[in-house]
Amino acid sequence: MAAYDPENIFAKILRGEIPSTRVYEDEDTLAFMDIMPRADGHLLVIPKTPCRNLLDAAPEQLAAVMATVQKMSHAAKNAFEADGVTIQQFNEAAGGQEVFHLHFHILPRHEGVSMRP
Ligand code: 5GP
């Protein structure tokens, strides 16, 4: 697996070098809006420490990120009056990953409404 690249977009968002709409932050994690939402309320959750993807994650990074994923899933479901929530996560280019800093997608879902491509 390739090394972590500190110039990836989410690392720049963490350092405040490029703007983002932050919705939640704690000592270990950040949640912000996806710039090309595939559902209303599409959020991303990332660890604040370097991590390329799930295959590269330490257990404590995963524990912190998943706690925030659960918290944000409740918040997004309530805020968008959703019927459910889809969680997505991609690893390496072959697995669909485009930004190489670990992230989980949170997609509020409504009955009968497809996600946008
Ligand atoms: P993935 O790596 O999970 O396939 O896709 C990366 C996700 O990051 C995409 O959903 C894309 O819309 C989002 N994204 C890419 N660049 C930016 C950015 O500069 N700001 C924000 N907020 N989201 C981004």
Automatic annotation (TrEMBL):
Occurrences of domain HIT (ranges): 9-116
Motif stretch (Histidine triad motif): 101-105
Protein name: HIT family protein
Organism: Ruegeria haliotis
Residues included from the entire protein: 1 to 117 of 139
